[in-house]
């Protein structure tokens, strides 16, 4: 068994963990935000810019998270308060994020993350857990943001399925009018969870530009935001399945480098297409399934007008 491959798959899948969680929490509130790619790009470029200017890992992460949150807040104002179309607004956010990252990152191309920030995000082994054969080196000899990804999925699952707030959130997504009639502050719940989704997407972008690359390049997300949106469906809107989906596609993302070692006569372009082709296949298979188990929130993407209750 090639342990190094699985270790690298976790590293490659970690930005997807945060992006999937962010979109999943957003969609649980009934809001469909297709601007994940845009928020990731905004978070990536702001986090990198702050890193270059301050050489402070904490400020870099905060800058990226805050930037992703601002993008989500704009989406929230337009779709929740102004009742704009959610799909169009999300697409506009992605286009804006791409343009913003390209413009802001013009002078950053070729720049590398300061050495002290690289050291901050270096791998370290968790005592006892890291000593477990096979599993230990793969899962418990990683960087701080990878461990935070594990913890985030557990917290999100407990939050959604073991707390009153989580129950209210799911009620808002499933039947907004009924939740409103029961006294749940619908707009408040939507705003808060759209914002949380944006913060997580900003963190996802920061991981790409500060840890995974770690230097600035144009289109640094390379479509990962769209894969994250699709993986929310793959994970059946269940936070406990997020790690499985993210690490599976992390493995698909890096498998090309492994195949090259065996000198197979396969075009690199075809290998690069693999994650996206698998995403399409999975979406087709899930769409063909008739079971309601793990279905999307019933009011996902629907604009709520309280006066029409």
Structural commentary:
By secondary structure, this protein is an all-alpha fold. The chain has one domain (3-293): Orthogonal Bundle (ABC transporter involved in vitamin B12 uptake, BtuC), CATH 1.10.3470. It is 69% helix and 1% strand. The protein has 13 helices and 2 strands. It has helices at 3-28, 36-54, 57-81, 86-104, 115-120, 135-139, 144-162, 164-174, 176-181, 186-212, 224-234, 242-259, 268-288, and strands spanning 124-125, 141-142. A two-stranded antiparallel ribbon has the order 1-2. It is globular. The model has no long low-confidence stretch (mean pLDDT 91).
Q: Which geometry do the CA atoms define? A: globular
Strand order of the largest sheet: 1-2
Measured distance between first and last alpha carbons:
58 Å
Rg, Å, rounded: 19 Å
CATH architecture: Orthogonal Bundle
Structural class, judged by helices and strands? mainly alpha
Number of helices: 13
Domains (count): 1
Q: What's the total number of strands? A: 2
β-strand amount: under 5%
CATH topology: ABC transporter involved in vitamin B12 uptake, BtuC
Low-confidence stretches: none
Largest sheet: 2 strands, antiparallel
Overall pLDDT metric: 91
Order of helices and strands: HHHHHEHEHHHHHHH
Report the CATH C-level class: Mainly Alpha
Helix coverage percent: 55-70%
What are its keywords?
309 residues; globular; 13 helices; ABC transporter involved in vitamin B12 uptake, BtuC; mainly alpha; two-stranded antiparallel sheet
